[in-house]
Input
Amino acid sequence: PLYSSAASDVYKRQDVTRRLGVPAAGSAGLRVTNAGLALLISVLLARLLGPSGYGIYAFAYAVVMLLALPTQAGLPTLLVREVARYEERGRWDLIAGLLRRSNQTVGLLALLVGGTAMVVVFAFVRDPGDAQVVTFLWALTLLPLMALGNLRGATLRGLRRVVQGQLPEFLVRPGLFLLALLVALLLGSVLVSSFELTPQLAMALHAGAAFVAFIIGVWLLRRELPPEVRRTAPAYRTRAWAGSLLPLTLLAGMELINGQMDVVLLGILASTQDVGIYRVAWSVSLPVVFTLTGVNLVVAPHLARAYSAGDIPQLQRLATWSARVAATVAVPAAMILILFGGPILGFVFGDAFSAGGTALALLAAGQLCNVIAGSVG
Output
């Protein structure tokens, strides 16, 4: 009664900005940092491995990311949604049960998928020491590390610890990988004249960085998890969780396939050099969408809480806010890549990669359409 309807709407918009602005800024900052680290890693790998070697590395990584789909399915999305709901209702027993059940499921599936992949490789390859085979085997070690790490990040985001939930995967892992590549570059140019970075060694360095990031993620979750969760006996709603998991798995699966299948098909149909050039173009197109991704990570638990409370006007405010923020950054970034993609690739990665300019323009345009649509996922 003390406020007019218009004044009340202004207050609510300011409240959304206040509560979401700080974590969104932190999330966006991590995304900017991650995009920068990813770009530097791509530059180093492209220049140290060349188009063919980088193609071997990218193809192995893409195949393993597709294999990761059945290991984690839609569990990270389910965790964000359900942990946010259960925290709002004080159901610490269900949080404990969901965490235990999801870790058991992902751990078992990762072992089964990884073990099956290794059996298939050794059953059908003629030369187990081939660079492509060894690179793929090193990439398989990423399966359990990244799958379980994604669960821990999703749990932290569900608890509205958005920045902490992203630190291991978006800062620690790429940061350590970049540091390892810089050491390799130093060895190759200064200390050991005969040293040469191979796709196998690059993937092994990536696996080591992922292991350290996994350990840090475990520590962050133990620090941020409410003590009530540890003190409460777990309760399970396995059937309900499994029923919710199917549509989330389809959504996560389509997103993963959309992100990796192009590289896998190109590796089957074309040369490793083509894969390397395309992968570089793909990585350079990512900054167009990173703002939307960062905003989604912040907004997701708030969407779950608002929907659980039946607050549809709040859902509308969140949707409008997220689309506007994401598009503000994405439009100028996409236009630069569409107009000057070829010269940028040639200057940063080397002349051999300038052929990816057309692919980069198409990828940037597609990412821009994705961003303008807003937080529809």
About this structure: Residues 5-67 form the longest helix (63 residues).
